[in-house]
Amino acid sequence: MYRANFVSNKKSPMVYIVSHSWPNRWTKPGIKNSIDVYSNCDEVELFNDVNQESLGKLKNPGLGEHFQWKNINVKYNVLYAVGYVNGKAVAKDYILLNSLPESKRFNDLMAETNEVLQPQEDYNYIYRVNSGGDDYVDTYGNTWMADVHKTDKNTWGSKSWTDEFKDLPTFYASQRTTYDPIKGTQDWKLFQDFRYGGNQLKYEFPVPDGEYLVELYFNEPWYGTGGGMDCTDWRVFDVAINDKVVLENVDVWKEVGHDKALKKTVRANVKGGVLKISFPNVTSSQAIISAIAIATKNTAIKPVKASSKNILNTSANVPVEVRSWLNITDKQYIDSEIHYTKLPAEVYGADYVRFSKSINQAKISGTFISKENATVYVFVKDSESKLSWLKSYEKLEEIAENNQEIVFKVFKKEVKKGEKIHFKNNDGIAVVPLYNMDEKDDRPIIKLEAEEATLLGKGIKKAFFKKSDYVEFTQKTTNKITFEVAPGVANIYLMRFRFMNMNDYPVKVNLSITDANGISVRNDVIEFPIKNKKWKVLNTSTGGFINAGTYKITLEAKDMKGLRLESFEFQ
């Protein structure tokens, strides 16, 4: 936004489509609104394919404004923006909309060849690892194994700074995903997932002593987005094998630019039975790695097992898969292209169980063992949410959803290390180890009284009960209440509504979070349970990181009768 308003388009033209982290914005084609583009160019043309299917060209609206397309027919999965200065195309940006039909020229985004992943002849590849991602089969038919946390010296796996602390999430602040197309490869997914960190990020592979070929794969997912920047020296790091630096001053952007595959090959002589890859010196930003391959001329060498996942000893009367790194855009079922478009924040990055969609739910029965003290999350269709085996589970207010717009209620319960868990559904199960962030209670809390919020509708009254002023909705009509907050730093924020529900049924309302530009951050349904004796607190969150700025948190429904709101807290 800053560059769009204050950087010269003669020296540094740029264009950025909002947003690169919203691949499931729409699940169906049709008329869409509020497609925003930030640019300092004179004009921007937006396409619904690779430089084709124009959605119109707009002139720069001036300082403090941004380009916005309204009421346009979006048919395909590509949005492609071109910025013009003095009539000449000088910048471009594109994003993918994963749930929409593939555009006619989609393959123009794909590299013509995939030589970057071509295996070396006469080598025995003993390890291939998708850093920060799940098992992946590339276009050569080779499997890249899911990144796992190393927990046993006789297995391979990764470590990071969280290993120095007790009860922290294993991959906390060291893994991310981009949804952008990746130049220079046909295997985008392998380069879209990545690990990042400093000198405590490392991978360890037990191997016999000898000489090995090590292939390291990189992608710059952040710096350079939108074009118009020289990002040289923004990310610089060394790579070491067994504490000996083999690559100095790696600068991915300087070598290949933004969102493009880069391969580095080195040879290592191992003594001591372990090949360790680390990043001992980080000059700027953080080290980054997308994939690792290790090979040898010795055809007799076999890989050791990976450190175990959080789901052990799965047994079922139907086919199941244990997968890792759960995320939106991931397939929900073994035998279907249906994928998740919405997930509760707690399950991102989790190990999960995937089933066949075609199997009758009533016939499913199985068990698994939890490796650690953990929370088990079960995704269940609304029609099946009262099944007897879920009685020991607690229902979350958050939901899961797929690109067929089917909504799943989410139930959870805590289990002990080594506990056997029984299941009888096929819509998804995730397991998240328990952790303790040791957060202090002195985090600032913004408390807003409901009677001081912006109210819109009929039959809204203000009253007093048990030492508290409150707002009550007294009519079955459309009503809305809006709180405004201004977080000072980017973070995930807790939100708490203090309420009473005087009905004998839960009240469902739409919760929306929008920024100062009207861009939606969260938009879904939450449920206020029956609580008519005393005040109760409903906890939720922003659902992900939000930037510093001004936001409106709105509750709205066609029928909020009987709902009392005393206050709203933002922390």
Notes on the structure:
- The chain has 571 residues and is mainly β.
- The relative contact order is 0.09.
- 3% of the residues lie in helices and 45% in strands.
- It starts with a helix and ends with a strand.
- The protein contains three helices and 45 strands.
Low-confidence stretches: none
CATH class identity of the largest domain: Mainly Beta
Mean pLDDT: 93
Radius of gyration: 26 Å
CATH superfamily name of the largest domain?
Answer: Galactose-binding lectin
CATH architecture of the largest domain: Sandwich
Task: Compute the number of strand runs.
Answer: 45
Task: Summarize the structure in short.
The protein contains 3 helices and 45 strands. The chain is mainly β.
Which helices and strands occur, and which strands form pairs?
Layout: H1 2-6, E1 15-17, E2 30-32, E3 35-39, E4 43-47, E5 54-59, E6 67-69, E7 72-74, E8 78-85, E9 88-96, E10 124-130, E11 136-137, E12 143-146, E13 157-159, E14 175-177, H2 188-192, E15 193-197, E16 202-206, E17 210-218, E18 236-241, E19 244-250, H3 252-256, E20 262-270, E21 274-278, E22 282-284, E23 287-289, E24 291-296, E25 311-316, E26 320-323, E27 340-342, E28 351-355, E29 366-370, E30 374-381, E31 394-402, E32 407-415, E33 420-423, E34 429-433, E35 446-449, E36 454-456, E37 460-465, E38 468-473, E39 479-485, E40 494-501, E41 507-515, E42 520-528, E43 531-541, E44 551-557, E45 563-570
Parallel strand pairs: 10-12
Antiparallel strand pairs: 1-3, 2-7, 3-6, 4-5, 4-8, 8-9, 10-24, 11-12, 13-16, 14-15, 15-23, 16-21, 17-20, 17-24, 18-19, 18-21, 18-22, 25-29, 26-28, 27-31, 28-34, 29-33, 30-32, 30-34, 31-32, 35-45, 36-39, 37-38, 38-45, 39-44, 40-43, 40-45, 41-42, 41-44
